[in-house]
Design brief:
The complex is a heterodimer. Chain A is of the alpha/beta class. Chain A contains 23 helices and 20 strands. Chain A starts with 19 loop residues before the first strand and ends in a 23-residue tail after the last strand. Chain B is built from five helices and nine strands. Classes of the chains: A alpha/beta, B alpha+beta. The interface between A and B is medium-sized, with 30 and 28 residues. Chain A: Pathway: Amino-acid biosynthesis; L-isoleucine biosynthesis; L-isoleucine from 2-oxobutanoate: step 1/4; Amino-acid biosynthesis; L-valine biosynthesis; L-valine from pyruvate: step 1/4.
Chain lengths: ~575, ~180
């Protein structure tokens, strides 16, 4: 008897190409590459090594079809694959050897699962006869990655390769996207398949059935709450961008006239110019969005998961509000915030179903509430930061000048820390799918490789990465990858010679006991030049315009180091454990 | 602390046990007992996991996280009253010459336990029942001395009249609503 025969709810079905088949018998390595090609893979970020050498030998024959990019460290491959996936919506692919090659991917995999990024990592493994013997470069990478992958699998027989690779791509991309790791023993790479190669795309699985279209009664319940709301408030999460629901979101907020704020990863899904856009949420988000979260009557969360950086103290978060939670992952419903009207499904499908049920509405007075808070924030924080009288340059003015010069159209990749928060605050995103950063995991060193991956994924867009001096030194070696590719990735280092965010916390919460946060930095421009990348250090306000112009005009990779004020703090701030309404302005 | 029995139906693949148990580990939930066997359908395994927890909500969240494992077909969380459940225990009891003889009639008729192996110096008694019944017997037999004691862990079947195939739509309903 077949399971789930009576189920009609299907996962998203990809377009159906003819299965790719070869009549002659091929080995596992060739099967792997042909399967990747059949899945539409054009770019692989990788690093060779002993246990993956048969695959690298095969790639040599497919250089016309597959662009393999040699990174300088496997962590770089993982983050580049993430950047590529985030900007292109395709699955990022990375390739590494066993043992240290595989473990070096781990940070990137953990980053990808928490930020719902589709990625397939293929790693070599020692020969199957050596499994469990502590062989050279043997690591139980399946065991290591169980908690941080959406799925993982070890292949020991080349015959399994087409089916498993098809399954890997289907799982990585469908539902709530995430990373998949496939571990292939060296003998499975070397052995001939026992049957002709045949790659068929995976379209459904018995046990894994992500729901796309939500249930009608759930949508109706959500619509009822929204229609009755006096002070509705929309929270836009990453799910909107993943689902490509930006247009539907606009229709929703315009029809029902609802103010909308964005999470960190939701940034750029609505243009900052939109009259209903009220700002950014969370720990360093805007004043009004945080305070009014605790005054709205219906909170409509779309494709987001109420991260603790968004909610602050959960017991004092939006207690007055009814919650509509539109989310593709059923495990997120009620996980942090109880939903009065959960809607499980893809954001685009859900909004398509929801919009016709909504009444046209006006909430001008409610929207104007946000403006009052904006005025206070503007006076106390934004204006002093954008037009400072200090001698040293402030991060905010760098970001805003960049924003003006790129007209809010660039792909911005921010690393992790103060510069990331400043980027989120001051870059004025006007084009969807323009912001990439490590949100959930907060992975320092993410931005340089991710920006490179993004440039590979969107070569026609301007890609600018904003990196702190601490972060930059975590994956600095990827300058080599960028230089070798020649792709014009624009790199801005906001250098304050501090691990700024940690320093800020030590100042605010640890009585200024600056414990190991000051950095003696190398000459970044000399380093860049050593890699063959041109650069410039900007230390004076008068030079900032020209420096940015020069960087943006370059048709090659370019490093701009800006020396910024050493002890700057990011405000507003909801301190850990505080309530969102108690956001501090100083 | 309330006892919850979690039944997980999975594809029978290598490493699936690890994928399930790591979800408990991460949330610091201790597993009281765990049994795994193939179901009436080939290739489909059934996990019966017993935990104690003070928060039903936490158990519901746990169940949803288990459902996310790709190989998992369905997950159900039950209270004791929802299920018929039992386990098997085995006792190795010494029978040295001169000791007080075992009262086989009481063991059989009162405790529904059976001697399944005789040795010159000990016997092995098998007792099927709930945890409470097993520990009742444990207390009864303890004065003889217990050389070894083992429990199988709980197996449980829901009292609902539905079959596994009927359950799956229910699972969909339950976890996707």
């Amino acid at each position: 008897m077949e399971f789930n025969e009576n189920q009609t709810q299907d996962a998203q079905i990809a377009e159906k190409p003819a299965p790719i088949a070869t009549p002659e018998l091929i080995n596992g390595s060739h099967a792997l590459i042909q399967s990747l090609i059949a899945e539409g893979v054009e770019t692989i970020f990788g690093y060779p090594g002993g246990a993956i050498m048969p695959v690298y030998d095969a790639i040599y024959d497919y250089q016309e079809q597959v662009n393999h990019i040699l990174v300088r460290h496997e962590q770089g491959a993982a983050h580049a694959a993430e950047g590529f996936a985030r900007i292109s919506g395709k699955v990022g692919v990375c390739l590494a050897t066993s043992g240290p090659g595989a473990t070096n991917l781990v940070t990137g995999i953990a980053d990808a699962i928490i930020d719902s990024t589709p990625m397939v990592c293929i790693v070599g493994q020692v020969g199957s006869h050596l499994l469990g013997t502590d062989a050279f470069q043997e690591t139980d990478i399946i065991g290591v990655t169980i908690p941080i992958t959406k799925w993982n699998y070890q292949i020991t027989n080349p015959d399994e390769i087409p089916e498993i690779i098809a399954k890997a791509f289907y799982i990585a991309k469908s539902g709530r996207p995430g990373p998949v790791l496939i571990d292939i023993t060296k003998d499975a790479q070397q052995k001939l398949m026992s049957k002709p190669f045949l790659h068929k795309k995976c379209e459904k699985l018995l046990s894994y059935r992500p729901r796309l279209a939500p249930k009608e009664d759930q949508v109706a319940a959500a619509a009822k709450l929204i229609n009755e709301a006096k002070k509705p408030f929309i929270l836009v999460g990453h799910g909107v961008q993943i689902a490509g629901a930006e247009q539907e979101l606009l229709q929703l907020i315009e029809k029902a006239d609802i103010p909308a704020a964005s999470t960190l990863l939701g940034l750029s899904s609505i243009s900052v110019d939109h009259p209903n856009y009220v700002g950014w949420l969370g720990m360093h988000g805007n004043y009004g969005t945080n305070v009014l979260t605790n005054q709205c009557d219906v909170l409509i969360a779309i494709g987001m998961r109420f991260d603790d950086r968004v909610t602050g103290d959960v017991s004092r978060y939006a207690k007055q509000a009814k919650v509509v939670h539109i989310e593709i992952d059923p495990a997120e419903i009620d996980k942090i915030i109880k939903a009065n009207a959960p809607v499980v499904g893809d954001a685009k499908k859900a909004l398509e179903m929801l919009i016709p049920l909504l009444k046209e509405n006006k909430h001008e007075a409610w929207r104007a509430e946000f403006k009052k808070f904006d005025a206070i924030e503007d006076e106390k924080i934004t204006q002093p930061e954008l037009a400072p009288t200090t001698e040293k340059i402030k991060m905010a003015e760098v970001i805003r000048t960049l924003s003006d010069k790129t007209e809010g159209q660039a792909v911005i990749v921010a690393d992790v820390g103060q510069h990331q928060m400043m980027t989120a605050r001051y870059y004025q995103f006007k084009k969807p799918n323009s912001f990439i950063t490590s949100g959930g995991l907060g992975t320092m060193g993410y931005a340089l490789p991710a920006a490179f991956g993004a440039k590979v994924g969107a070569p026609d867009r301007e890609v600018v990465t904003i990196i702190g001096d601490g972060c930059f030194q975590m994956t600095i070696q990827e300058l080599g990858t960028i230089a070798q590719s020649g792709l014009p990735v624009k790199i801005i280092i906001l250098n304050n010679n501090f691990l700024g965010m940690v320093r800020q916390w030590q100042q605010l919460f640890h009585q200024k006991r600056y414990s190991f946060v000051e950095l003696q930095n190398p000459d970044f421009i000399t380093i860049a030049k050593g890699f063959g990348i041109d650069g410039h250090t900007c230390g004076a306000r008068e030079d900032l315009n020209d420096s940015l112009d020069k960087m943006l005009a370059s048709d090659k990779p370019y490093l701009l180091e800006v020396l910024v004020e050493k002890e700057e703090n990011v405000f507003p701030m909801v301190p850990t454990g505080a309530c969102v309404a108690d956001i501090r302005l100083e | 602390m309330t006892a919850y029995t979690i039944c997980v139906f999975t594809e029978n693949t290598i490493g699936i046990l690890n994928k399930i148990t790591t979800i408990f580990t991460r949330r610091r939930i201790n597993i009281d007992s765990l049994t795994v066997s193939e179901t009436e359908r080939k290739g489909i395994s059934r996990f019966t996991i017993v935990i104690h927890h003070e928060s039903r909500e936490a158990v519901e969240k746990l169940v949803r996280q288990i459902r996310k494992v790709i190989e998992v077909l369905a997950v159900f969380g039950y209270l004791n009253e929802d299920i018929a459940y039992n386990e098997i225990a085995m006792f190795k009891i010494p029978t040295p010459i001169g000791a007080k003889p075992l009262d086989i009639e009481t063991i059989n008729k009162v405790h529904k336990a059976w001697v399944v192996y005789w040795h010159l110096t000990y016997v092995i008694i098998q007792k099927t029942g709930t945890e409470e019944e097993i520990f009742e017997f444990f207390d009864y037999i303890k004065p003889h001395g217990i050389l070894e004691f083992v429990r199988s862990g709980r197996v449980a079947v829901s009292k609902s009249p539905q079959t596994l195939v009927d359950y799956l739509p229910e699972a969909e309903w339950e976890y996707y609503q």
